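anyone seen this seq b4? input:
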Amino acid sequence: MRHFILFTLFVLAQLVIKGQTAKIDSLSNRLKNETRDTIRVTLLWQIAQQYQSYKPDTSLLLAEKALLLARQINYVEGESRSLAILATSQYLLGNYPSALSNYMLKLQIEEKRNSPRNFASALNNIGLMYILLGEFKNALTYLRRADSTIEVTGGKAKEELKYQITNNIGETFLRMKLPDSAQVYFNHTLAMAQKAGDYVSLGESLLSQANMYALKNNNTAALHYYHQALPHLKKALNIDFVCEATMGIAKTFERLHVLDSASYFAKMSYEEAKKGGFLSRELDAAFFLSQHSKRINRFDSALSYMELSVKLKDSVIGQQKVKDALIISTNEQLRQAELADQRRKEQEARNQQLQLLLIAIFIPIFFLLTLFISRIKINIVFLRFMGIISLLLIFEYLTLLLHPMVIRITHHKPILELLIFVVIGACLVPLHHKLEHWLIGKLIRNREHSVRKHTP
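predicted toks r here
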């Protein structure tokens, strides 16, 4: 029966991956034919999101492309979404500091937008990163801010995020070895999961309850919740948590001196981990079995499991080295992409400076040309037109030069920009009229003088 269940889980997992592949192909085909940059950004982060569960390195690179394009076109929604996918991919690769940094950038964006749901989500993800980094006080600070935000907001934001935030707060207290505090929050998440009838969150909540009771050395309650959690975790295809639950049962049975049951569930945890490819879970189970076999005087088994533990430890270390190398590689690719974006921005700045320089050269040439043609016999209407254009070029060029300075002073505040340009206009308009009157008069006098000079 157990082999049949494992086979069924494997088939279901393959179907999920095939479904993701089909969706990736569909999104990729749309991306090839899409010309609108905002839609391209959206498609890039959506493809990246599909890759997250089984190819986080690919997801990371696609999210970076989406982020760079979103920043180029000032697409704030795309930038926020891309940062979230990028950070989550880094988290899945084990690069928690970089993930935390990008979640912080997302938070800065959401602070300026009217989206309490996204703001609370960013706070929650930052809290989760602090949990994984072992900085529990910081984790609680951000998670409580997230909780208060959704409580004030209510509605759909609370419905979507309340469970996750509450569970993370409980997990923080559990890792701080404060089971009574953790229990308060885990009781809430269990009630929410039961009310929603969601077997995924229900399995996680029951497992959290079991771990909390295990920490309190309440073995009977721990076993009760571990056994309740297992069917839901298997149904959710969460093999990692299945391994955690079966290992928890084994350790609890050992504390109760029910040794055969401890061996049975530890072996189950090992087999599940091996099938799912979770090396660290395999190592935990193998090491437990080596110590457990030693306690019950099965020295041959103890030696076999100890040798297996050594091999698995080497494999885990090797896997970690590969992961570290992958992080370094992806970080370098991200750095190169950022450098390319920086070079693009520098090129744009150089092009802008060149255009300003060419305009600065053109204006005096045009002005001199106007003075020159005023000395030849030419239609007076055209002469007036040339004079007006000369002055307009000068004044508009001054505005063009002042604009970046005004933006820096006002920090992109439209009201302040408007007030400053109104003041500048109030000064320049009268000056423009006076100069226009003087210049047109000068040009006409030059023309009349030229005409009299050439009259026989």
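The longest helix spans residues 299-373. Residues 366 and 390 are 7 Å apart (CA to CA). kinda curious what u guys think
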